[in-house]
Every structure is written in structure tokens, then in C-alpha cells.
Design brief:
By secondary structure, the protein is mainly α. The protein has one domain. The protein is built from two helices and no strands. The relative contact order is 0.08. The model has no long low-confidence stretch (mean pLDDT about 80).
Length: about 90
Amino acid sequence: MKESKLIGGLIAATAIGVAIGLLLAPSTGKQTRKKIVDGSLKFKDDFMSSVDSSIEALRKQINSRIDQLAKGGKEVVNSASEKVKVNDM
């Protein structure tokens, strides 16, 4: 949850910084449009990179939890199997 808030804040700060820079810089219309396009492409790339890293972190957390659950399940099965063997003797 904290990571997603951080990423959202970074993305918002980047967008605001680009917008302020474009508004304050003296440029022709053509130059400003080019800056907007370039800034938009950079923003998209940064955003996709952030999304990719968040997805990878989430994937690792899910896989870790699945491994923990599988290990716990195996332990329960083994314990139950041992109890059944002891009771059969």
C-alpha cells in the first residue's frame, strides 16, 4: 500500500513539474508542442516502469505467500499422516 502511494506521488510530482516547466519557459508554439509530446512520452515511460516494478513486487509477495501456504499444508498432511500411522499400530 505504501509503495503505491509513493509511486502515485512521484508520478503526480513529475506531471506537475513538467507542466510548470512548459508554462514558464519562453518557447514558440512549435517548441512547446514538441516539449509536451516529449514530456508526455517520458511520463508514459516512467509510469510504465513504475507499474512494472509494482507488479513484480506484488508477484513476489504472492509467490512467497503461496509457498508459505503450501509448506504449511504439507506439514499438516504429514502430521495427520503420522497420527494415522500411530493410531493404526
